[in-house]
Amino acid sequence: LGGQDSSFNMRFVEPWLYDREVSLGVNLFKNISDYDSFLEETLGGGITFGRALDEYSRGSIGINYEKIHYTNVDQGFDNNLIQEQSVFDITLGWRRNTVDNIMDPTRGYLARTSSKFAGFLGNAKFNKYYFADRVFIKGPGKITFSINGEAGYVDVGNAGDIPVSELYYLGGIESLRGYQYRSLGPRNFFG
Length: 191
Fold this sequence. Notes:
single chain
């Protein structure tokens, strides 16, 4: 599933909505992903509200909609891939940041978690959960050690209920070096 992406993303964030510690974010996007086995075009947008929970933590809730269209699907590719999907989801997020310096951290951690619930409207029906943590540990002299971990889980009943882009894949410089981008993962959703 390795491929190339073209994307446009316009985002506006008001960090202090009405002079309160509540943020409002609005985004619009269009992505074209040319994978080895198909072409995926996505158009959508969303609105997100966030709030500080304490000195280091922040929570958010977002409502998003996207329309996904698949073309140029290879005959040998999974036949569960439907030609067009619409995803309407509500996403809950939490993050905690205790690093001592955002530009050059030497101690602390960054933790993030999110839960995406799709299926209220649209033809995509799935739940997606994600957790990531990065810990910074001061070493001798000017050395800092960093340990990073990520985990995700997708709960879906039928293969046609989830867009391919919502599945988890490995490969590429950001996840597993030595493998092409998104080259490790499901080829046939339930086989």
